[in-house]
């Protein structure tokens, strides 16, 4: 046992023991370190409270932004439903209008083709009739010429007939006068002869008178026949003249009818042209309606593009909301981690303070026991102080490591908050652009 004690003394001689001043210096340094740790912990607590406030503000802003975006999404969805309803109604109306106008256009085309065929047929007929009317005009002109010639001939015949009748009547009157005179002279001669003749010549004279009377009767009958023949010829001429006049009246009526038909055909051609113009106007109106329909289809396509753009904006807003929710979850996780680390830091600071308090109590006890105990106990106390000092240094090192870790977490939290603020600014810019 003796040599072992000697060895311990040698070791103690080799390792110089720290004095109380050094312990006091170390204690002062440790107190300074503890003061720095306290100031850092206070700064960390202040930053923690600031980050909590900023986190609460960010959370409120996120809630407001979420409400605003949800309201905008609801409004956009309502507008989308309204526009979809309007688009469906307009599409139905367009389909109905297209079918209606297609039917009208088909009917108009059919009517136009039928009318065009009818008009072409009528035009051909009218052209043929116009050619025929030209022939009728030529025939009429020829007929008028013949009529004029015939009227001249009739007038000449009337004059001739009047002259012939006058001559015949004159001759008959002259013959009657001559015959009457001859009869009177003959009767006078007969009377003279009768007076002068004897009784034997009366029979022959009577027979001669009878013969002369018969001859005169035959002459009168011949004259009456000639007069009847002249009257018949005159009547025939008059009937032919009336027939010619009737034929001329018929030709005049036919000419009037042809002129009326020609005028009616011209009016019909005018009505056909007007109906064709109306059909062309209807076709132009249908073309305008088709253009308006195409314009409406373009507007519908533009509205659909706008709706698609709004849907894409809504999708982008939903993506931004999801990103914001993820950032919110990350911030919440960081907040929870930081809270746990702050609690651990408080617990470690509490332990360090407890250990420092124990060290201070031990120092006080050592100062009190220095006067009472001997030199043999001083070595043990010094060893205890060294052990306590090492424990305190380790606790301080742990606290410093935890503080550095907490500072790193706080820097990460600041970066996440800055990124969240950047995202909020981008969301607000997108909402203002909307």
Automatic annotation (TrEMBL):
Is Coiled coil given among the entry's keywords? yes
Q: Which GO terms describe its cellular component?
A: ciliary basal body
InterPro entries, from UniProt? CFAP157
**Entry superkingdom:** Eukaryota
Keywords, in A-Z order: Cell projection, Cilium, Coiled coil
Subcellular location field: Cell projection, Cilium
Coiled-coil portions:
109-160, 293-320
Gene Ontology MF annotations = microtubule binding
Key word DNA repair present in the record? no
Extract the PANTHER family matched here.
Answer: CILIA- AND FLAGELLA-ASSOCIATED PROTEIN 157
Q: Give the family, as the similarity comment puts it.
A: Belongs to the CFAP157 family.
Protein name per Swiss-Prot or TrEMBL: Cilia- and flagella-associated protein 157
**Classification lineage:** Eukaryota, Metazoa, Ecdysozoa, Arthropoda, Hexapoda
């Amino acid at each position: 046992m003796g040599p072992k004690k000697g060895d311990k003394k040698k070791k103690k001689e080799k390792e110089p023991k720290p004095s109380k001043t050094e312990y006091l210096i170390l204690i002062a340094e440790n107190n300074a370190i503890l003061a720095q740790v306290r100031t850092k912990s206070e700064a960390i607590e202040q930053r923690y409270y600031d980050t909590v406030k900023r986190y609460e503000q960010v959370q409120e802003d996120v809630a407001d932004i979420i409400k605003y975006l949800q309201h905008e999404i609801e409004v956009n969805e309502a507008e989308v439903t309204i526009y979809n309803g309007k688009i469906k109604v307009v599409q139905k109306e367009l389909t109905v209008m297209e079918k209606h106008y297609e039917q009208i256009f088909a009917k108009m085309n059919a009517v136009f083709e039928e009318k065009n065929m009818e008009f072409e047929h009528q035009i051909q007929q009218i052209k043929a009739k116009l050619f025929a009317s030209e022939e009728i005009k030529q025939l009429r002109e020829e007929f008028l010429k013949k009529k004029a010639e015939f009227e001249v001939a009739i007038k000449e015949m009337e004059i001739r007939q009047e002259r012939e009748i006058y001559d015949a009547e004159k001759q008959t009157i002259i013959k009657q006068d001559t015959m009457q005179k001859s009869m009177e002279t003959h009767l006078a001669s007969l009377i003279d002869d009768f007076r002068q003749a004897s009784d034997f010549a009366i029979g022959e004279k009577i027979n001669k008178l009878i013969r002369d009377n018969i001859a005169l009767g035959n002459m009168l009958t011949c004259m009456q026949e000639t007069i009847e023949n002249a009257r018949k010829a005159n009547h025939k001429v008059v009937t032919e003249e009336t027939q010619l006049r009737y034929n001329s009246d018929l030709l005049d009526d036919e000419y009037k009818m042809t002129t009326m038909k020609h005028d009616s055909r011209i009016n019909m051609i005018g009505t056909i042209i007007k109906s064709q113009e109306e059909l062309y106007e209807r076709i132009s109106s249908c073309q305008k309606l088709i253009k308006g329909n195409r314009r409406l289809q373009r507007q519908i396509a533009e509205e659909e593009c706008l709706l698609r753009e709004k849907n894409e904006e809504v999708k982008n807003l939903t993506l931004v909301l999801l990103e914001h929710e993820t950032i919110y979850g990350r911030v919440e996780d960081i907040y929870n981690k930081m809270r746990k680390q702050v609690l651990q830091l408080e617990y470690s600071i509490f332990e360090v303070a407890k250990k420092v308090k124990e060290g201070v109590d031990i120092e006080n006890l050592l100062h009190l026991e220095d006067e009472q105990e001997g030199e043999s106990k001083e070595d043990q106390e010094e060893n205890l102080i060294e052990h306590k000092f090492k424990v305190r240094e380790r606790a301080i090192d742990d606290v410093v490591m935890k503080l550095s870790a907490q500072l790193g977490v706080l820097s990460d939290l600041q970066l996440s908050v800055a990124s969240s603020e950047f995202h909020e600014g981008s969301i607000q810019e997108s909402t203002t652009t909307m």
